[in-house]
Amino acid sequence: MIHGIGQVGSYLASELYRLGYKIIGVSDPQGAIYNSSGLDIPNILRKKDSFGLVTKSIPNSIALDEFMQKECDMLVLTAKGEQIKTIIAEQINAHTILETVTHSVEKSALKNTDG
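The structure corresponding to this sequence follows.
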C-alpha cells in the first residue's frame, strides 16, 4: 500500500505496477482506495484531479484510519508532515513500513512501529 499518491507515490505506484507488483491501496489527503485483489494504477492515476486527489473520482473510497488498519506486506509512506501519529501507529497492520520522505512518522510513534 502507498500512503500518499503525490509525485513520489504516483511514480512509485506506476513503476511497481509496471514491474508486476500488486498494489492493494493508495491514499490521498482526503481518503484512500483499497482493493485486496489489487488496483488498476494507470486508471487511478488518469483520474487524479487538479489537486492530486483520486478519492473524489473513484467510488468506494475509505477513510485514512481504515486504510492504515488494512493488512499488507508493505506500507510505503510518501506523504510529508508526520502522517503517522502514535494513535495510528498502534493500528497499522503492515509487515514492513518504508519511509521515503523525512518526518512522515511522528517521533513518539516510532516506538509503536519497531523503528
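The chain is about 25% helix and 20% strand.
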